[in-house]
Amino acid sequence: MKSPVSWITGSLMFLVIILLAFHLSATNLEYSRYNPSWNGTSAFFSYLDETGGYTEIRDIRDIVPYNNSVLLIIAPNGGFSSDEIQNYRRYIEQGNTLVIADDKGKSNSLLEGIGSTIRVIPGNLTSIERVYDDSTSVLAFPATDDPHFSDNGQILLNKPAYTAGGVPLFTTSLLSWIDRNGNGRPDPHEELGRYPVLTTERKGKGTLYVLSDPAVFINGMWQGGSGPGNADLITDFTGSGRPVLVDQVHGETGSADGFIHLINFIKDSILLRLAGVLLVAGCAGCIFIIKRKMVD
């Protein structure tokens, strides 16, 4: 018959194994920071870890105390409440930078709420200027004299939308169009022209950037297949030494399922974390007491 020490030790080992499984679990959800595949953002978050770290925002009220920081909303899922919009507006107007990467137009209610003129226009943006044998692998080029962005060369996009309003920083080439019928070529009713894909606007003391393609942040687009332009752009947003915040409330980078969803729930619950600590401490205490009695 096993001794109480063996049972308790085994329980602790089982708990450690479960926690390790949580840590190593992955998902295939698009844009998720827990997804190491082509369409995940694990490489982006590793980069943040290596270059100063970041703070995950799981309650929008937590952004309000910040000054001179940058907040990223990658692939927003919509559903912004009026109170949240007011907090975003306060955040940017008091001197912070807000970066929104959206190709679905789900950020438009937020943009309107914070008083921005910029909008994301979903559409099948297509271009002759591309890298892969896919007309939606669109190249975009600097449209500004600002050295902060003009030195980037080109960025590669993946089925992007485009923006309206604000000041364009990157646009497609003139050989671009909205392919409404999906045939991959410009028809007479599909006008060729430059389409903005990264736009900026000043709001109060802060700055707003709207990028019409969150795919720039995914693992498969990190270098973009067209040189370092995508990585350089991300460095422009996050490499200034300011605190970097990542919105996990409305951004799809916080998407999780299975074990990951459970461990995130535990991490976000103070009571559950406290219960875990007390459980481990209690098991360790029992082992100590039982061993001491056995010695005596």
Q: Could you explain how this protein is built, in words?
A:
The chain has 296 residues and is of the alpha/beta class. It folds into two domains: 4-25 and 258-295; 42-253, Rossmann fold, CATH 3.40.50. The protein is 33% helix and 19% strand. It is built from eight helices and 13 strands. The protein has helices at 4-24, 42-50, 82-93, 108-113, 147-150, 229-238, 258-268, 270-295, and strands at residues 55-57, 70-74, 97-101, 119-121, 125-127, 139-142, 155-156, 162-164, 167-172, 176-178, 196-203, 206-211, 244-247. The strands form three sheets. A nine-stranded mixed sheet has the order 1-13-2-3-12-11-9-6-7. A hairpin with a 2-residue loop joins strand 11 and strand 12 (206-211). It is globular, with a radius of gyration of 24 Å. The two termini are 21 Å apart.
